[in-house]
Design goal:
globular, eight-stranded parallel beta sheet, hydrolase activity, acting on ester bonds, 16 strands, TatD DNase, 2 domains, alpha/beta, TIM Barrel, single chain, 439 residues, TatD-like, four-stranded antiparallel beta sheet
């Protein structure tokens, strides 16, 4: 990887590279420039007709190499070979958390997609979009159905007499005078609430329709404030305003817990793995996992749970990892690269419990964003990154590259059936695991 970056630097010194912020980029004739995308850990040369936006560590950056600069063909070919992930390697990468249906999903992009993706849903209107995508591309899409904490106030736990009755009881603090005016302004934007029982019935139907589906995205979020905007139509990315005016209201944690616990109960019943969001809710997340383990016992460890774009402290993660053998974490450049702490978290995480994701709302850059995080994990862990794929895995796992290690982690996550903490596998279980590996 260092050699790849060095090659880019050599070209940069010869004044053949310009950088410009993606926000100010003019499209122009995209047949003329060859676009080179650089992050701190990987670079990629694309055909002239391709246009991607890739996150650097601080902002979106588009690096353009112009053909008029007379870059020697040998240099371009060498850079291309050095930087582009081999398709045979990419085929073993899984983006464990993304939101492709937030944007239009071009069929030509899906046809050429090398990786597998876990496609999340978040509210009632995008569950059918995820269903359709999974039906169309069953070999590439693991559908994930669930209701996100940002929209949990749309779900009613208790019986209500009216829309206003539900939201006023849930959101308004009578002791705060500013709430009254803000609530009157917000109420017209809010949808009619859905009873929790109806949501669970619909969720059950979706999960049962896809035996390999997951529960996601669900979770806890103590920082998200409800915006003064109506619910966006699908696809959301085309309709969501860039800047939203936020109300003073957040969804009470107690309500969020009731919504997620009902969904987790269903996941345990059906044996479905989970993708969980946790923001500014570190202790609440720890308590929730402990409560689920105590409530469901070995049924809980039959399913896997991924703390996606994990923002927990390294110490909190180590405590979770020790107590919960079914807990994994995944990281994304979109979220985690905003803070250098994500590398500390990677270092603290067991090499068998880490996964990678894009957490992106457009299918087009998902593969490269996932690859970017994979390279970051490899850098922190001191793992090599495969340039070619060998179907015969080396006997010595310590020599495995990052792609094979993370693929093995995904298989373990997908399979579930983890032993409770402190319990050793039986001789028969070890024999079965050896047999499955040989297969």
């Amino acid at each position: 990887m260092a050699a790849k970056v060095q090659k880019f630097r050599e070209l940069a010194k010869r004044d053949v590279v310009q950088s410009a912020s993606a926000e100010s980029q003019e499209t122009g004739d995209i047949q003329t420039p060859l676009r080179l995308l650089l992050s701190s850990s990987t670079i990629l040369v694309l055909p002239p007709t391709a246009l991607f936006h890739v996150a650097s560590r601080s902002r979106l950056v588009l690096l353009v190499i112009e053909k008029q600069r007379n870059i020697p063909t040998t240099d371009m070919a060498e850079l291309d070979r050095a930087s582009s992930p081999n398709p045979s390697v990419l085929a073993h990468v899984v983006d464990v958390h993304c939101h492709p249906t937030d944007s239009p999903v071009p069929s030509e992009v899906m046809d050429q997609l090398s990786i597998r993706i876990c496609a999340m849903s978040t509210r009632a209107s995008d569950q059918p979009l995820v269903r359709d995508l999974a039906n169309k591309y069953p070999a590439k899409v693991i559908p994930c159905f669930g209701y996100h904490p940002w929209f949990s106030h749309w779900i009613a736990i208790d019986p209500f007499t009216s829309k206003e009755d539900h939201y006023r009881h849930l959101l308004v603090d009578p002791s705060k005078s500013e709430h009254a005016e803000a609530f009157d302004r917000l109420l017209p934007y809010l949808p009619d609430p859905t009873p929790l029982s109806d949501m669970i019935t619909s969720l059950r139907s979706d999960l049962q329709a896809f035996p390999h589906s997951m529960l996601g995205e669900v979770g806890l979020d103590r920082s998200a404030r409800i915006p003064f905007t109506p619910p966006s139509p699908v696809p959301y990315a085309l309709h969501d305003p860039e800047k939203k005016e936020l109300s003073p209201f957040t969804v009470p944690l107690e309500h969020q817990l009731k919504v997620i616990e009902a969904q987790l109960e269903l996941a345990v019943e059906l044996g479905r793995n989970i993708s969980m969001h946790s923001v500014k809710a570190q202790q609440a997340t720890v308590d929730l996992l402990d409560r689920m383990a105590k409530r469901f016992g070995e049924k809980w460890t039959r399913v896997s749970i991924d703390l996606h774009s994990c923002g927990l402290s390294a110490q909190t993660w180590r405590d979770i990892e020790r107590k919960h053998p079914n807990a994994f974490l995944s990281l994304s450049t979109a979220i985690n690269s905003r803070s250098p702490a994500h590398k500390t978290l990677v270092a603290a995480c067991s090499p068998t419990r880490i996964l990678v994701e894009s957490d992106f709302n457009d299918i087009r850059p998902c593969a490269m964003r996932t690859w970017d995080m994979l390279c970051t994990v490899a850098e922190v862990k001191g793992w090599s990154v495969e340039e070619q794929w060998d179907d015969e895995a080396p006997d010595d796992r310590e020599t495995w590259g990052a792609v094979r290690r993370l693929e093995e982690n995904w298989k373990r996550f997908e399979k579930g059936g983890h032993l409770p903490a402190g319990k050793k596998p039986s001789k028969r279980q070890m024999q079965l695991e050896d047999w499955e590996e040989e297969e």
